[in-house]
Amino acid sequence: MTARLVGRRPHVEPEALIAALVPPPHFADASFSSYVPDPDFPSQESALEEAQAFARGVGRRGLGPLRRSSGGRGLYLDGGFGVGKTHLLVSMARDVGERAAFGTFVEYTSLVGAMGFQATRQALQQFALVCIDEFELDDPGDTVLMARLMRELADAGVALAATSNTAPGSLGKGRFAADDFRREIQAVSTAFEVATIDGPDYRGRGELVFPAPATVDQVLGACARDGGACEEWSALMEDLRHVHPSRFGAYVDGISVLGLRGVRPLPDQAQALRVVALVDRLYDRDVRIVASGHSLAEIFSQDMLRGGYRKKYLRALSRLLAMVAGEGKG
């Protein structure tokens, strides 16, 4: 009997949302020692050294009470997707230990939506280090929210580490009237020292070439054989509208294989961004995907791929390819 995602309405208490701010299962084996820099790209070795030094500093400070004197201390790992930024961020969190919080940018903004700003700040300022993966400022509300949250955490003595596909001075570019929010963007960029990481995407190493879609029988067979969840694409897309993004992790918990029948291109940006968030949570959990209908390579339109969220969609495609190919950890 196959499992279901559609209809799940996970209830997650605020304490559980905070407790869930740990590195995802996909990076269970990630550490500084398991990060292997590409010798063709010296910036990877440099970033490794900077991340190790940063974590050592936070770890020493984290043994005692938090101090306001460290306000503004942060490390920002900038580079394309698939160059090991998240691996290094996880390694920093793991090095600091239980006094480190780890989550994606979307998870933190969703956390504020679920708990409120003050409760979120009070919970996060108990940590010595807050790690923010996939940092992006996609709209004015998020810009103001995250700039304020980071400023207040830094003032409380919390160290910050982040990864992004966009240099901090360019956050928000192409997405909204960045000039109107320059003060907030500047506040974000000045909080960090930047380590740039070069190199190709280890998941693709070139063009993203997806395999041919599966047949419906293959989808059903994979779900039945491996105990996966099997869903109609349109039903899943509709269901996602009723699940808060902060609960996407709980929504897909326990699923090792996801079968999708009747995949179609996404009609609008709001739905596409929900899919990006879902893909991230599936990837975190090493879920394998078997899909029929249109190729998953076609779910984002060319207009989407040319727009302000281009890097988000490309990252999602890179991760989808890894899950369709069943590559597992990497």
TrEMBL record:
Keywords: ATP-binding, Cell cycle, Cell division, Nucleotide-binding. It holds the Pfam family AFG1_ATPase. GO terms for biological process: cell division. This is Cell division protein ZapE. The lineage of its organism: Bacteria, Bacillati, Actinomycetota, Actinomycetes, Micrococcales.
